[in-house]
Design a protein that fits this description.
Oligomer: homodimer
CATH architecture of the largest domain in chain A: Sandwich
CATH topology of the largest domain in chain A: Jelly Rolls
Number of helices of chain A: 7
Chain lengths: 237, 237
DNA sequence: CGGTGTCTTGATTCTCATCAATTACTGTGG
DNA sequence: CCACAGTAATTGATGAGAATCAAGACACCG
């Protein structure tokens, strides 16, 4: 576990919205003030409903972003990996985090206070613009998801979720490089554990996905993609 | 129908993200170039999948924002009224509008080309920041909706939709000041026309909503709100 | 080698979408 | 002003899909 401070200069996450400005003079005073926070698997990074205390960037590791209904059911909204942002809502009028975030494996985070982040965005116009584009894309993605939840069958939702996980985290040696429980897939797909299991069973029987121990693999995404697209010609995001 | 050009200076929509900068010097050259577009009820403002040709602001009127699956089913993503924005995705990497927009009544729009809008945002940092906050809020709203679609019953979704419509457009003389068909409510709530009718019937019987001719009214939102909150303590948006 | 948690499968129940048929409403032209 | 057509709203019946419930298999860990 990395405990030492991470400097943006030496960071390899080219997609990070901050990294891009690591040579910017104005940015320097803020970059100096950021914190490096290591956290262990299953640890809560952001607690839903807690007062907002800044914005996070994933330096390394994997995270799930979720929120909970009072019935105890949790909805996973998205996953985040290296270079991605968490707790982005400090800017809107909210006082409390509307979402929670949990580390799926050992993770290292960079943290900026909401105040510093605000100032940095106001002082570096290009950064505000970049953030705006980022949010616009996220909004797109989220609205696509609304549509999916409204009209897809469980089978389609599960397939769609598996494809998303595959796109996001990729495969290593033929298997998805992230291990999620059936429950987590269900919470992401918007269904129940049992349904996910049933769909996965059928997909395995049909040879559309493979499994070894607890790992899942997708030999070819083509047929699966095709099935989704046939009924919903979505602009993927 | 207003045909003459609308000037931001004389516009009354205080919530408009552009109006706020109508005295800004840098903004002037862009404001001069905007177009005023009147359109009639049921007219298509944005056609889903068409090449992006700018961003719109509602000067007056009411609009629905939607997208369609190949099965013909449409999902209404949100409604927009005076001062609100349409086709906001010109900034992200998309080439085509991922959504469509249709006028629900006679509507007057202001239009900026994507290029002008981009330049304006780059040249006026505070505007980029405001837009960023706007998107962040929209994202929040959308993610709340994902959660709702995942876990609410049809009855809850319909009630939630009616409350949203009421919040957004308000009531006049005890009735909602917008008239939507059952089908439109269904497309927004993520269910079918028949289900909406059934739920509304029951709600009328229980005196929770009233109707006169085609108009719907909500005498008191308290009980309805309570029903939603009991099962899902959402941060409303 | 218990024990705990995840995974799996089957059976049951229930909600909701669909289909079909009827009624109410709106606008138009004669 | 009324007849008519076309659209929207309504109601009931049915079936499919999905959530829930229950029980057992499996793996992992002390």
């Amino acid at each position: 576990m990395i405990r030492k401070r991470i400097e943006c200069i030496s960071c390899q996450n080219e997609s990070c919205l901050i990294k891009k400005f690591c040579h910017d003079e104005v940015a320097q005073k803020f970059l100096k003030k950021k914190n490096t926070i290591p956290c262990r698997k299953t640890q809560n990074i952001i607690i839903e409903g807690a007062p907002i205390h800044g914005i996070f960037f994933v330096y390394s590791g994997k995270v799930k972003v979720l929120n909970t209904g009072i019935n105890g059911r949790e909805q996973i909204l998205r996953f985040a990996k290296d270079g991605e942002m968490l707790g982005q809502r400090g800017f809107s009028t909210h006082q409390y985090y509307p979402i929670g975030a949990v580390a799926l494996e050992d993770t290292v985070l960079c943290n900026f206070s909401t105040n510093d982040m605000r100032k940095m965005l106001q002082e570096i116009p290009q950064m505000a613009y970049d953030f705006m584009v980022f949010y616009a894309d996220e909004l797109n993605r989220s609205e696509t998801k609304v549509r999916k939840f409204a009209h897809m069958t469980v089978r389609e939702k599960v397939i769609d979720s598996l494809l998303y996980i595959n796109r996001k985290f990729g495969q290593k040696k033929g298997y998805l490089s992230i291990r999620l429980s059936r429950k987590e897939i269900a919470d992401f797909a918007g269904t129940t554990e049992e349904q996910v299991i049933r769909v996965i069973s059928v997909l395995k029987k049909d040879g559309l996905i493979i499994s070894d121990a607890k790992k899942l693999g997708i030999p070819s995404t083509d047929i699966l993609k095709q099935e989704i697209d046939e009924h919903h010609y979505f602009i993927q995001s």
